[in-house]
Amino acid sequence: MTDAPADTPLWDRPAAELAAGIRAKAFSATEVAEAFLARIEATNPVLNALVDIRPEEALAQAAAADAAVAAGGDVPPLLGVPVSTKINTSQRGYASSHGVPAWAGAVAQEDAVCVAALREAGATLMGRSNSPAFAVRWFTANDLHGRTLNPWHPGHTPGGSSGGAAAAVAAGMTPLAQGNDIGGSVRFPAYCCGAVGLRPTMGLVSGVEPRGAVEFDSPLSFQTMAVHGPIGWTVDDVRLGLHAMVTPDLTDPVGLPARPPLGEPRRVKVAVVRAAGPAKPHPTVDAAVDDAARWLAEAGHEVEEVELPLLGEAARLWSLLLYQELKTMMSEIEQFGDDGVRVSLTSSFAAAAEIWGEHPTLTDYIRGYARRGTLISRLQQFLGNDRIVLTPVTAEPPFEQDADLAGDTRVGELLAAQWPMQAVPVLGFPAVSVPTGLRDGLPSGVQLIGGRFQEDLLLHVATAIESRAPRSRPAFSWARTG
Predict the structure, then answer these.
(1) Cβ-count burial 345-369 (b if 16+ within 10 Å, e if not)
(2) Among 315, 333, 397, 482, which residue is least crowded by beta carbons within 10 Å?
(3) How far is 430 from 426, CA to CA, in rounded Å?
(4) 263 near 280, Cβ under 8 Å?
């Protein structure tokens, strides 16, 4: 995107412009931090997107950034850029609470690898973003920190589990946020709040946490499906955040030994897939896909509608592999979780049972993982080096608040609607959620899926959508924000 007009407030400028301005001494990192802290003070009391905000620490980081600029020489790429981190990711000196009251004192002594990478890149860490307890709902509320609201409409979810991160970015509290995603937890909040969210290729960003007060052995699906990724207001913000977060790390069970080479921007084939899963897209969702397909064709990409049933099959596997393994964590969730997560998961298990039966067998589970490998190979063969897939992010507009507490029938509808996002974690491919404007007063958007380690190409294509889509900040017409 082009630079913002000169009178644009600092909090409304993209991360790349802030980083360049600090390096060029057009403004200081301290001025940037003060602008974002003021924006947080004005908007966060309404949204409750960020928790554990420590202005003195943020200003101290900004002062150190200004000293680095004054000293001359090369400076890191995110120097002075405000970034939030999620409450389920370790940041030294802060609680890794997971939204659980019993873990409110679980203060991390070290950073998670991805947070350390952001710190090394020069980011000013501005606060912790809210999420649901245990990060296993598409809604953001917990008994420790309360509920996060969608800045566009309080009656609709900001998404989950990185709902606080996306709401903060959309409101201008930070231009960039760290989140994580096992079933849409970066992409869905970005969609609900009108931001950009990237789920990287599995293994590209390290998921390793330091030893700490809260430690448990992650189920296999968490090790093979959960990733950290950036949420930003623009595609360029997300690109900058991704490059900072890429962390070759062989202590990660799926980590890489080195950074993969960056891809070159080029024209691609775009395969439009609307309904590979059980839920047909809502008319507003279909219209967003239409817009994105037209814009990509205008940008010179070759666009065609295709059938790709393997995505629907992968989404079905997600409901088997993830939920069967989540059941092994239910003793901790029952002991420490809140009513919201317990009720939500109970209905989610019931919805999965409609697909796989009440008691899937060990054979189902083993064959599910075997089938996963076949589907990965088939999708990579389909994509090659010059094709991406355009899908809805979800089959519905942003859900009504607490829709997952409305009973088994509604939860079954939610599970069916989320097939485009569920397919991606099972297969380990990168995907980005890109906004396409507003429909009926709520954000709309689409998902782009690319070949493994083709993030740069994926973001290049996303820019063609972003450059044509109408964008605005939420006006908070439903609340006083000061």
Answers:
(1) bebbbbbbbebbeeebeeeebeebe
(2) 482
(3) 11
(4) no
Strands 82-86, 124-129: pairing is parallel
DSSP letters, 367-398, are HHHHHHHHHHHHHHHHHTTTEEEEEES-SSSS
- 252-264 pLDDT, tens per residue? 999 999 888 777 7
pLDDT tens track for 265-280: 889 999 999 999 999 9
**Mind listing the pLDDT tens digit for each residue in 440-475?**
999 999 999 999 999 999 999 999 999 999 999 999
Q: Can you read off the two tokens belonging to residue 24?
A: 């060029």
**Nearest alpha carbon to residue 455 among 123, 189, 164, 203:** 203
Nearest CA to 88 out of 167, 162, 169 is that of 162
Which position among 185, 319, 347, 348 bears the catalytic label?
185
434 — phi, psi (to 5°)? Answer: -125, 130
Segment 351-368 shows an average pLDDT of 96
Q: How far apart are CA 173 and CA 169, in angstroms?
A: 6
3-state secondary structure of 129: strand
Q: What is the token pair recorded at 390? A: 């355009």
Cβ atoms of 47 and 176 within 8 Å: the answer is no
- Backbone phi, psi, residue 176, to 5°: -150, 145
Amino acid identity of residue 398, one-letter, is P
Q: Cα–Cα distances in Å, from 382 out to 51, 66, 120, 134, 168? A: 43, 48, 37, 35, 37
Q: Which residues contact 216 (CB under 8 A, 6 or more apart)?
A: 329, 332
The catalytic position among 28, 96, 129, 161 is 161
Residue 7 β-bridge partners: none
Model's pTM, two decimal places? 0.97
Return the SS3 of 303: strand
> Residue 96 in 3-state DSSP?
coil
Residues 6+ apart with CB under 8 A from 343: 404, 405
Radius of gyration of the chain (CA): 21
Q: Which of 28, 84, 86, 444 is catalytic?
A: 86
At 231, give phi and psi (nearest 5°).
-120, 130
Q: Could you check whether the bond before residue 348 is cis, i.e. omega within 30 degrees of 0?
A: no
> From CA 51, how far away is CA 168, in angstroms rounded?
11
Q: Is the pLDDT of residue 482 over 50?
A: no
Decide if 86 is catalytic.
Answer: yes
- Give yes or no: 472 in active site: no
Give the per-residue pLDDT at 217: 74
Q: Check if the beta carbon of residue 435 is closer than 8 Å to that of residue 194.
A: yes
Q: What is the DSSP string of 183-216?
A: SSTTHHHHHHHT-EEEEPPTTSS--PPPS-SS--
State the angle between helix axes of 455-466 and 283-298 in degrees (0 to 180), rounded to the nearest 10: 100
Tokens of 6: 């000169």
